[in-house]
Structure formats: structure tokens, C-alpha cells
Design goal:
This is Restriction endonuclease type IV Mrr domain-containing protein. By secondary structure, the chain is of the alpha/beta class. It contains ten helices and five strands; from the N terminus they run αααββαβαβαβαααα.
Length: 257
């Protein structure tokens, strides 16, 4: 009998907590102090202090991949500096990483209190090209700039066009989202943001958004699912399966159900 253990089979079926290690109770205290340092620096610090605080926070976050990746920081690429590069070890990473986002992620921290702009998305795209990377992650106070009732303009539109035309995937985490890593898994959120970017971009109903775009993709899918259930097109079991899959793939539904 062959008792050889397949690492690839293990890592592809391992829970996300085995890919990105959650914080222990003592580490949560330190993590919260790093988040608070960023909040204080953004309000009171100079440019150097703001940058240092946010980069320190993201180093702590990215290092939770350390069993399957090497974390580089403050790299130089031509005339540009790269805040973080997460380089996954080939053979130690799940198929999702290999297939969808590649073995290198470039992380950029933006220490201003304004939305990520088109120029910043374009600059990150060039950094990705220089490092043969497909995925970039912004960490910032606010998310991408958007045009009301149209997701194909400004920074939001730029990243969608890059995903469609160039297979370059740029996602972002606000400081508020990062603070929730006390209870959430960063790798899970990366997968959900990737899925939302791909599937929402290809969803024709994205054209019919409310002006403030306040309803998340998870909630829009849930409303459609609930209407199918109400109209008796799907049964209770199918409805519950759909709810579970939306939560897992795109992020938590916030509507009551």
C-alpha cells in the first residue's frame, strides 16, 4: 500500500488558517496597537511617520504567510520603490494562488486620506509588470475613486479594465477592513476580493447600480437569490446553498435573511 502523503493534496484542501496564520490572543493586542498607530499617524504625523506606520502594519499582516512565502520590503525597481513583495514558494502554495494570482504579490501602502486615484493604479500596474506579477494590493485609508452610477471610470474603472484586458488584478484593503483581521482571515478576503473583481466585472447587471454604489456585490446577488426563492423558482435547500456559497466566495451578506 502506498502511504506516501501528497503535500499538494493537503495544501489544496487545507483551511485558509493554514495558509495565512490568524493572530494569537497576544498577537491581537500587538496588531491592534499597530492599527492605532496608523490612525494616529494619519491624523497627526508627518509623511514619513504615516508611511512607516502603515508599512509596519502591512509587514505584520503579510508575515502571516511566512510558512509558504518570503516577504520582501522596501525594494527598488528602477526609479521606484516597492513597499512589499510577497513571493510564494513554488510547490508550497494552493492551486488558487498558482492558477489565479501567481507566485508574486506586490503590496503598496498609501498614507494619504483620499481615495486611490487612476495614476496610482497605473503606477502599480507598472510595478507589477517589472516584477512579472499579476496581483497588486493597496493598503490605504480610503478605497478606489469611483464615478457615481458607473464603475468603469476613475480608479475603479481602471482596475476593472486591467483585469479584463491584461489579466492584472489590483485589489485594496482600507484601514477599517484591515482592522477586522482580528476576526477574519486575510487570505480568505484576498480570494473574495479577487472573485468579486472578476465576476462583478462580467456581470451585466453592474450597469444598473444605485448612484452611491452602496450595495455590495454579495448583497446584490443575495437579493436576486431571494427573489428566485420568493417566486418559487428555487426551493429552500437551493436557497440555503446559494446563501452559503455567496458568503464563502464573495464575502458576508449584510442583508437580513
Amino acid at each position: 500500500m502506498d502511504n506516501t502523503f501528497s503535500y499538494n493534496k493537503y495544501i489544496n484542501n487545507a483551511p485558509d488558517d493554514e495558509i495565512w496564520k490568524p493572530f494569537s490572543e497576544s498577537e491581537k493586542v500587538h496588531f491592534q496597537s499597530l492599527v492605532m498607530s496608523v490612525r494616529v499617524a494619519l491624523e497627526e504625523g508627518d509623511r514619513h511617520q504615516k508611511g512607516l506606520a502603515l508599512e509596519s502594519l502591512m509587514t505584520y499582516v503579510y508575515q502571516r504567510f511566512d510558512e509558504i512565502a518570503v516577504i520582501h520590503y522596501n525594494l527598488t525597481s528602477g526609479d521606484n520603490q516597492i513597499d512589499h513583495m510577497i513571493e510564494f514558494v513554488d510547490g508550497l502554495t494552493p492551486t488558487f494562488i498558482h492558477k489565479n494570482i501567481g507566485l508574486r504579490i506586490i503590496g503598496e501602502s498609501k498614507n494619504h486620506k483620499k481615495a486611490i486615484g487612476v495614476r496610482e493604479v497605473a503606477d502599480l500596474k507598472e510595478l507589477l509588470r517589472s516584477k512579472n506579477s499579476q496581483m497588486g494590493i493597496f493598503s490605504s485609508y480610503y478605497s478606489f475613486s469611483k464615478k457615481q452610477n458607473n464603475l468603469w471610470h476613475y480608479a475603479e474603472g481602471k482596475r476593472r479594465k486591467l483585469a479584463l484586458a491584461d489579466k492584472v488584478f489590483i485589489i485594496g484593503f482600507t484601514l477599517e477592513e484591515l482592522s477586522q483581521l482580528i476576526d477574519k482571515n486575510f487570505y480568505t478576503l484576498i480570494k473574495q476580493k479577487y472573485n468579486c473583481l472578476i465576476d462583478e466585472t462580467e456581470d451585466i447587471m453592474t450597469e444598473f447600480l444605485s448612484e452611491d454604489q452602496a450595495v455590495t456585490y454579495s448583497d446584490r446577488l443575495f437579493c436576486a437569490l431571494k427573489q428566485l426563492f420568493t417566486n418559487e423558482i428555487i426551493n429552500q435547500d437551493s436557497f440555503e446553498v446559494g446563501v452559503r456559497q455567496i458568503n464563502e466566495k464573495y464575502g458576508q451578506i449584510t442583508y437580513e435573511y
